[in-house]
């Protein structure tokens, strides 16, 4: 189907839909920032975002729970406070809270080794295996590299979560233990398995029974397939070949403890309130004890502060680090506790500002981080009384510069190519079954005169191998919404047979969770593809 450009079609819809969705929440006690509806409409238009949901709580009260724009750019159904979005890595705070509740129950201790509770758990280094604690699971300081092992769950993988955790023992460490911050997902998947091991309930059942139900988050779900089956769910969108369009929704389940929750503006206000009130649900009832807030929000792993973009100088913090399921940093000298989340077609941010008793959640159905950041900062600035900043213009300038950098890197790669340097072997010689120690099987087969690569546990990763130069090929995935084309380079033995194949993303724009660079694909001797 040919779809007109999103900006052109939104012009006649956005103000109407904003007004339709502008009925205040029944519990609202305080006015939102001035001219907020028009500001959000401007953000949607500036960054080509079909729809957004925003929740604000202040001083214990719900200020706003509202939808803006549309759930699906091809069908003008408005987003409302009950529209579900994938909140992705904002799930990590729920997993950390689940472990904290088990610590309160006496079933876990933060600083005890994971192997005390999961004797079969292992990483590739025996010392790290023996000493990695429950706290370490949640702090991104294990020694694994950025996104290491993510291909075990992203794109949707057919292996169960328990098996992916077993595979983790073969993922190599990149740095020494506790020396370097490197964001990872797989240890949060492990944390979900730990919840199951010590509670006797699956992570999904535990989070539903011990967190969602007590908070009255009855519309929130703990797995993408469950949420995608609901009638009021946003459709994911992303730029594909420069044009924003709907993309297939992520429907995997083995990464639920890292990124599986789907929620909405109505439900997330309960989460913001209980976190800001140190676990209190009602005057005589708690989800967790006040001391647990100090554990969840206390900085564990410092994060280096990069120079940053000049337009965003006001955002440069004095301190930055990771706590347990939350990032902690300051904004204009005030501590913030926050996280972001990203899955195909869904981006989100949850921010708590304890000193202001303020919580904000912004969910979007398009992969534009500037959109949720511009809205979040607008809200924080209002309640902080900060100088007015044109966040839309700032993020537009930064986005344009980042796109230019990516394009320049891609041009440089193409310019360095020697297309006349043909492969060393006939195409048939590259075909075969390959195996990586931690991922498993990857096959290359001859089809229609060319080569096709298939990842055994990842149905989405099927693509054509196009010769690039020498013994390097470019794999172009059949599903172009993947946006993760990669180079495959074969190393030959002296006798001309293939010793191994290595991969790397073809562009700096490829999401870090496509950790192709960590694969070492070796031929399976005697196997046929």
Characterise the protein shown here.
- It is a single chain.
- The chain is of the alpha+beta class and 529 residues long.
- It has a domain of 97 residues: Lipocalin (Beta Barrel).
- It has 16 helices and 23 strands.
- A 9-stranded antiparallel β-sheet has the order 3-2-1-15-14-13-12-11-10, with helices on both faces. Strands 16-17-18-19-20-21-22-23 form an 8-stranded antiparallel barrel.
- Strand 12 and strand 13 form a beta hairpin.
- The radius of gyration is 24 Å and the shape is globular.
- The N terminus is likely disordered.
Can you give me a brief rundown of this structure?
This protein has 529 residues and is an alpha+beta fold.
Essential attributes:
disordered N terminus, 9-stranded antiparallel beta sheet, Lipocalin, 8-stranded antiparallel beta barrel, 529 residues, alpha+beta, globular
Alpha-carbon distance between the two ends: 36 Å
Mean pLDDT figure? 94
Number of H/I helices: 16
Q: Structural class of the secondary elements?
A: alpha+beta
Main β sheet profile: 9 strands, antiparallel
Looking at CATH, which topology of the domain at 427-523 would you report?
Lipocalin
* E-strand count: 23
Topology:
Blueprint: H1 6-10, H2 14-20, H3 36-46, E1 51-58, E2 61-72, E3 75-78, E4 85-86, H4 91-104, H5 126-131, H6 134-137, H7 161-167, H8 186-199, H9 203-215, H10 224-228, E5 237-240, E6 243-246, H11 256-259, E7 262-263, H12 265-276, E8 280-282, E9 285-286, H13 290-297, E10 301-302, E11 320-322, E12 327-331, E13 334-343, E14 346-353, E15 358-364, H14 369-384, H15 391-415, H16 427-430, E16 432-436, E17 440-447, E18 450-455, E19 462-469, E20 472-477, E21 486-492, E22 498-505, E23 520-523
Antiparallel strand pairs: 1-2, 1-15, 2-3, 4-7, 5-6, 8-9, 10-11, 11-12, 12-13, 13-14, 14-15, 16-17, 16-23, 17-18, 18-19, 19-20, 20-21, 21-22, 22-23
